Amino acid sequence: MTAVPVPYRVVERRRETADSVTLRLEPVGDALAEFAPGQFAMVHCFGRGEIPLSVSSVQATGGLAHTVRGVGAVSDGLCETRAGDVLGLRGPYGTGWELERARGRDVLVVAGGIGFAPLRPLILRALAEPEAYGRVSVVVGARTPADLISREELERWRTAYTGVTVDWPDTAWRGDVGVVTQVMGRAPFDPGDGWAFVCGPEPMIRATARDLAHLGVPPERIRVSLERNMRCATGHCGHCQLGPVLVCRDGPVVGWDMAEPLLSVREL
Amino acid sequence: MTPSITLRVEHALPAEHRDRLLRLAREVELGPGTRLFEEGSDADRFWIVRDGTVALDLHVPGRRTPVIETLGTGDLVGWSWLFEPYVWQLGAQAVTRVRAYEFDAVAVRLMCDGDAEFGRDVCRWVGRVVSHRLNAARARLVDLYGATPAGGTS
User: Fold this and answer.
1) How would you classify the pairing of strands A6-17 and A86-93?
2) What is the CATH number of the domain that holds B19?
3) Contacts B49 to A, Cβ<8 Å
4) What angle do CA A263, B1, B6 make, to 5 degrees?
5) In which domain, by residue range, is B83 found?
6) Is B151–A252 a contact, with Cβ atoms under 8 angstroms apart?
7) How far separated are the first and last CA of chain A, in Å rounded?
8) Architecture of domain A6-93 in this structure
9) Which residue in A182, A155, A153 sits closest to A166, CA to CA?
10) Contact flag A54-B146 (C-beta cutoff 8 Å)
């Protein structure tokens, strides 16, 4: 791992929604070490700054992809990049989803909004080895149909169940309307034995994880990805501290057994 | 928030009361586009979805009727039948082909009146469904996804 950003070239920029794009990157020289699904890179947009972004795709060639939503100076700058532009990357940082711990068991993936992006490589990995896992189900929620990312992939994937729900449907929408917790009960999933992976806005994570725990999923089998401001990404600066946890080092993916007591403290 | 799966009748009611309730049901099949009920009309029936999707909608004058929520397998369609004035607060339409148990609401209310324990369990079940949907509606009011950061970790 290096503390100096390594140059990566944008080889493809695909618009996902009105305010988010997926950037496919290839190393200009040596690649960073391989990212595990759920891990993140510090992505440097020259002249703007650096932000943490989870990987939304990991290639064997060393290439990777980030899906970024423009919500500030750096992320806006990343959204404006073009094929051929060069970004600086540090990483891989943090904990991954650790999908391998779910081998032989049902897998339930619950994503909200752009939280789908960090879960995408996990889903691809699980679907690539259908004999290694039980039933793989995916539930995705978004504000509107136009805010759904990777919609075509969602329709193509051969999951045991795919549920897509939106808060505000348009006139063409024929799918579900409501929050993910209303839809995920339809997924074929053994709560006593399966593993759940959850990413999205923290209130959505809390509601989803609590429902799963209520159903009987052991908290340590509910893996959630936390979001905090990160700067150094190496556990030194303390910007991402959440109680006793440094999210960049001990997270971002943690078990609900660790996350629940922290997310219920107002001051944190 | 209570998980929607635990609100299903097979989980929410004791076996004896569930069986009594289901003895009042008739199996129906509804084609896509079938209107189950209209806002403001008498709430004299309710359904438990066995398969398919039902959309709840709200009439807004001058606008296309927006879908408020969709219900699927195992979900209870309608709760206004249990509470006065027994008038539907929303409309409902089958989005797909729907197989469901259909209940005569008056018969179920009479059974609730005649057996306090049965009535208490049915009221608790429907009350939990209403509570769950209220919490879900509140969560949607917050516009959770609008507050999502840039890309998963920041």
Assistant:
1) antiparallel
2) 2.60.120.10
3) none
4) 130
5) 4-135
6) no
7) 29
8) Beta Barrel (2.40)
9) A182
10) no
> Which of B69, B136, B154 lies closest to A51 in CB terms?
B154
Q: Do A94 and B153 touch (CB under 8 A)?
A: yes
Give the count of domains, chain B.
1
Q: Which residues 36-55 in chain B show a CB within 8 A of chain A?
A: 53, 55
ipTM: 0.82
Q: In angstroms, what separates the C-alpha of A1 from chain B's closest C-alpha?
A: 19
Check CB contact under 8 Å for B154 and A179. no
**Which residues, at least 6 apart from A171, have a Cβ–Cβ distance to it below 8 Å?**
B64
The CATH code that applies to domain A99-263 is: 3.40.50.80
CA separation for the pair A128, B70 (Å, rounded): 31
B152 in a structural domain: no
Written as tens digits, the pLDDT of chain A (268 aa) is 568 899 999 999 999 999 999 999 999 999 999 999 999 999 999 999 999 999 999 887 889 999 999 999 999 999 999 999 999 999 899 999 999 999 999 999 999 999 999 999 999 999 999 999 999 999 999 999 999 998 889 999 999 999 999 999 998 898 999 999 989 988 999 999 999 999 998 889 998 999 999 889 999 999 999 888 888 888 888 888 888 888 889 989 999 999 998 887 776 6
